[in-house]
Amino acid sequence: MxxxxxxxxxxxxxxxxxxxxYCQWENPAHGFNEFPHTVGGVETEAQAKRExxxxxxxxxxxxxxxxxxxxxxxxx
Length: 76
Fold this sequence. Notes:
Layout: E1 17-21, E2 37-42, H1 45-54, E3 58-59, E4 65-66, H2 68-72
Antiparallel strand pairs: 1-2, 3-4
């Protein structure tokens, strides 16, 4: 384009997805400041949820989630 010059060190476009997970259950086993459990540096919500499922999280169709501690207690 006329009159435009490319910068010597342009900033790249960085995109990604982050998910902060909170448990839907009140549980005395939850530690103070335990939540959120965060996944970042992935491209999609599906990838973030897949990563949290590997850690024991359960995601429900109603949009809520159950942490690994509550899932182990049968609170699914």
